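Hi C.,

You asked whether I'd gotten around to modeling the 97-residue construct. I have! Everything is below, sequence then structure, no commentary in between.
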Amino acid sequence: SGLITTPCSQPHDNEIYVIGTASGSYPGEIELNELADDFCLAEFEGFIGLSWGDSIYDFIWIVPDADEWETGERDVLCAAYDLDLAKLTGTLEGIGQ
C-alpha cells in the first residue's frame, strides 16, 4: 500500500484509528469518498472520546482507486491528526480533546 508505519511512541503525523472494508462493485471516486467520510466521522468520537466538532483533531481517509479496487483492495483507512499539524507522540485513543 505504500504506507509508512511509525510506532506511536515516536513522533508521527497521524494515527490510523479504524480500518473498514468496502464491498460490492466500485462506486466511483466521489461516492467512495463520501462513504469514507461518513464512516470515519461515525468512528471518530468513539476513538478520540470527544465529538469531531469539539475536538482539536481532524481526520482524513485513504480509499482504493479504481485500479486498486479491481485487484481486490477494499480497505478504507481513517486517520486522525492535529489541526495545527503538530507531530503526535503516543496514541490519540481516548484523549478527549
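If it helps when you're writing up: The chain has one domain: 15-82.

Thanks,
B.
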